[in-house]
Specification:
The complex is a heterodimer of chains A (355) and B (265). With 355 residues, chain A is of the alpha+beta class. Chain A folds into two domains: 9-235, P-loop containing nucleotide triphosphate hydrolases (Rossmann fold), CATH 3.40.50.300; 242-348, Nucleic acid-binding proteins (OB fold (Dihydrolipoamide Acetyltransferase, E2P)). In chain A, 24% of the residues lie in helices and 35% in strands. Chain A is built from eight helices and 20 strands. In chain A, the strands form four sheets. A six-stranded mixed β-sheet of chain A has the order 6-7-8-3-9-10, with helices on both faces. Chain A is elongated. With 265 residues, chain B is mainly alpha-helical. The radius of gyration of chain B is 23 Å and the shape is globular. Classes of the chains: A alpha+beta (355), B mainly alpha (265). Chain A binds chain B through residues 55-57, 76-84, 86, 88, 90-95, 103-104, 107-108, 135, 137, 148, 151-152, 155, 161, and chain B through 162, 164-165, 167-176, 178, 182-183, 186-187, 260-262, 264-265.
């Protein structure tokens, strides 16, 4: 479905207020044409509000929303030319699949002869061609979501908005649909996608860039690799990848001090004596003596099949360690030593320069 | 299940029938029995006959039945249009506006229907709108009385309607009117349907307001029943009442058979 050249999305200082509640605060973000941008954040972080501001279902108290360079802030939803897919599918229950997919084309008064072809094309893309005559209630959740995607794509939007599209599906279907969405994006390189999710795996898998949101604000934005490997804020570090955060004091070059233990890490240009946060991913923590050894007491053990998750109390801090399945499961109360490599730790704050 | 033990269940059924039968079923049975009788001096009616029915389905009575059917159909249609329209508009209003509208529409139910009848009579007995003595005044009174019910059931359905449907439609480029016709009304059809049945049944049985204002050439069936029994023709009146009951139930049955695709949601 090659279309006209792509259109990006741009938020310029967008604020949305409900009564006294600011649900989106001075939001700035640019989605480049053809880019997949994930809005990642916990519930209530304002990510869905941002998406709805693009769709036209909430009116910003201030700021502008632009689609393809055109200011759409005052435009009603039906004039914005967007495709939207929501969590609960919202397929029209009184219409067959083909009529659902044709809805946007008919509403826009597309030439009659063109509709059948484009409906077939959209259903083909989503692998739902065999279900054209069914009613939505006769389909499974995953199939309904495919139809919803086909319905949004049939109008050939330049911008596709996806609001937690996989949240209602079970885990197995979700990873399948994730691959499908990635394929659709490869087939439709001009379509910009804004993908709202609270699931970091979806965001990391699908997005070209991720915007991390919390408490109505944009906290961080970057490629998945940037956010995961060198998070700029504690919130990003803990929300993307569930990192351990240790309060440390920067010592001489290449060392930090954590509760009296000297750890060697990459300190960059951090000032001597400054307070900072050390971020270590749970799966990069090892068991036993090593370069950066921390002794502690196990407080909880979770066996997760292929891994053991240990919660270890180290100097009053709760550390998480994901270890490859241990032959002998340790027990709460056991004393253990954890270690991590210097290059696996990232220092946050304290004027740390970032690459 | 509220009552678990078998004996308890039997007891509760017995109590239910003991109360429900004499209050609800028995009077209807009595009418049915009376409609086939010529005398009723003992415990049971006597002199079985079909004469009551032949007079109940001819002449004035037949005319009255048609009058009632036309009035009820007209009033239901008007009530559904007005009530449905108001319910859809109310959904877009704020809380206060919705409350006000709701109160306004419930008013004719709260006010005794005799008063509503009188009010309509007085209002339309003088120019500029002079409808006294025409069928229209009956139609108006019935519409005023049943619109409340249409409004109530449609607005309940509108509130239950997931806004995701209309938003999906709007995002696909559908203008508000298109969304209304293609999405919202089809999804509301089951409740519009139910509301139509309710309005029809209420209008078919309306007597007190109608008594205040019916013109001599537009006598609905309930009035016919009342005048028949009033002049002592109890058995003919019973037969007419059974005809009214039967016709109403047939129409309701037909309305409930209209299944819409949205019913299968």
């Amino acid at each position: 479905m090659a279309g006209a050249p792509g259109a990006g999305i741009r938020f310029e200082g967008v604020s949305v207020v409900y009564g006294k509640n600011t649900v989106l605060d001075d939001f700035d973000l640019t989605v480049e044409p053809g880019e997949v941008m994930a809005l990642l954040g916990p519930s209530g972080s304002g990510k869905t509000t941002a998406l709805r501001a693009v769709a036209g279902f909430v009116r910003p108290a201030s700021g502008r929303v632009l689609i393809g360079g055109r200011d759409v802030t005052g435009l009603p939803p039906y004039q914005r030319g967007i495709g939207m897919v929501v969590q609960q599918y919202a397929l029209f229950p009184h219409m067959r699949v083909a009529d659902n997919v044709a809805f946007g084309l008919r509403a826009r008064k597309a030439p009659r002869g063109e509709i059948a072809g484009r409906v077939a094309e959209a259903l083909e893309m989503t692998g739902m061609a065999d279900y054209a005559k069914r009613y939505p209630r006769e389909l499974s959740g995953g199939q309904q979501q495919r139809v919803a995607i086909a319905r949004a794509l049939a109008i050939r939007p330049k911008v596709l908005l996806l609001d937690e599209p996989l949240s209602a599906l079970d885990a197995q279907l979700r990873s399948g649909m994730l691959a499908e969405l990635a394929r659709l994006h490869r087939e439709l390189p001009d379509v910009s996608m804004l993908y709202v999710t609270h699931d970091q795996v979806e965001a990391l898998t699908l997005a070209d860039r991720i915007a991390v949101m919390d408490k109505a604000r944009l906290r961080d934005c970057g490629t998945p690799q940037q956010l995961y490997r060198s998070p700029r804020t504690e919130f990003t570090a803990s929300f993307v990848g569930n990192a351990n955060l240790l309060p440390v004091t920067v010592g001489s070059t290449g060392t930090v001090d954590f509760a009296g233990t000297r750890l060697s890490v990459t300190t960059g240009e951090a000032a001597h004596g400054a307070s900072a946060t050390l971020c270590v991913r749970p799966h990069l923590v090892g068991l036993g003596d090593g370069p950066n050894a921390l002794r502690g007491t196990i407080t909880e053990v979770q066996w997760r099949g292929s891994t053991h998750r240990l919660y270890v109390d180290v100097a009053g801090r709760r550390l998480k360690a994901d270890l490859r399945e241990l032959r002998e499961s340790p027990a709460p109360g056991d004393e253990v030593t954890l270690n991590f490599a210097a290059e696996d730790a990232v220092l946050i704050g304290a004027g740390v320069a970032h690459a | 299940m509220l009552v678990h033990s078998r004996r308890g269940r039997w007891a509760s059924w017995a109590v239910f029938f003991g109360l429900a039968l004499p209050v609800f079923a028995l009077p209807l049975g009595v009418i049915a029995a009376a409609s086939f009788a010529t005398h009723w001096s003992g415990v049971f009616p006597s002199g079985p006959t079909l004469d009551n029915y032949s007079s109940a389905t001819r002449g004035e009575s037949l005319q009255a039945l048609i009058t009632s059917l036309v009035t009820a159909a007209g009033a239901s249609l008007l009530a559904l249009t007005l009530g449905g329209w108001a319910a859809l508009s109310a959904a877009a209003l704020g809380k206060r506006g919705r409350r006000t509208l709701e109160a306004l529409f419930v008013l004719p139910v709260a006010v005794p229907s005799v008063a509503v009848g009188l009010a309509v009579l007085v209002a339309f007995s003088k120019p500029p709108i002079l409808l006294n003595g025409t069928p229209w005044i009956v139609l108006i009174a019935h519409t005023v009385l049943v619109t409340a019910f249409a409004y109530q059931s449609v607005s309940a359905a509108v509130r239950r309607l997931d806004p995701a449907y209309e938003q999906a439609a709007a995002s696909l480029g559908a203008r508000p009117w298109y969304v209304l016709w293609r999405v919202r009304i089809p999804l509301l059809l089951p409740s519009l349907n139910a509301a139509a049945g309710l309005c029809f049944a209420l209008s078919m049985g309306e007597l007190s307001a109608t008594m205040m204002l019916y013109p001599p050439d537009w006598v609905p069936l309930p009035v016919q029943i009342f005048t028949a029994t009033d002049r002592g023709a109890l058995f003919t009146g019973s037969a007419v009442a059974v005809v009214l009951m039967g016709t109403t139930m047939l129409v309701l049955l037909a309305v409930s058979r209209i299944r819409t695709r949205a019913t299968y949601r």
